[in-house]
Amino acid sequence: MGDNNFEQRCAIRFCLKLGHSATETFQKLKQAYGESFLSRAQVFRWFKVFSEGRELIEDEPRSGRPSTAKNDENDIRVRELVRFDRRLTVRIIGEQLGLFHTTVHQILTIDLEMRKI
C-alpha cells in the first residue's frame, strides 16, 4: 500500500472520530490531496469499515495463491529447455514445466529477452 493511501485512511478514521460524514471526509481529502486522492467509492467503503469498528488501517491479508511462477528457478528451467530444443512451442514448454503458457511467454520475452519464439 502506498504511503499516500495509508495517510488518507488515517485521515478517514480521524474524520470519523471527529463526527464528520463520509461526504465531508471525501471533500476534505479531495482538497488536501489534490489529484492523488482516493476515489469517492473507496472513501465511503473505508468510512463504513471504520464506523463498523475496524481499527486496522492496513489491508487484511488476502487468501489465494501468491504469484510465484515467475522466479529465477523457472527462468533457468525455461532457458535450459529452450537450449535443449529450440523448436519447442511456448505451450509445450508450459506443459512440460507445469507453467501457464502466458507465464512461459513472459519469461522468454521479458526475463530472457528472446524475440523469435
Question: What would the CATH topology of the largest domain be?
Answer: Arc Repressor Mutant, subunit A
* Number of separate helices: 6
Top CATH class of the largest domain: Mainly Alpha
Per DSSP E runs of 2 or more residues, the count of β-strands stands at 0
Termini distance?
Answer: 36 Å
- Oligomer kind: single chain
Q: What gross morphology would you assign?
A: elongated
Cα-based radius of gyration, to the nearest Å: 23 Å
Low-confidence stretches: none
Order of helices and strands: HHHHHH
What would you say the CATH architecture of the largest domain is? Orthogonal Bundle
Computed structural class: mainly alpha
- How is the main sheet built? none
Mean pLDDT reading? 88
Secondary structure: helix percent = 55-70%
Strand content: under 5%
How many individual domains? 2
